[in-house]
Amino acid sequence: MQVTTATAEEMGIENRLNPSQSIKAGIKYLDKMIQKFDYLEDEYENILFALASYNIGYGHVTDAIQIAIDMGLDEGKWQSLKITLPLLSKSKYYKQTQYGYARGWEPVQYVERILTYYDILKQKEFI
Question: Is the pTM here over 0.85, yes or no?
Answer without folding.
Answer: yes
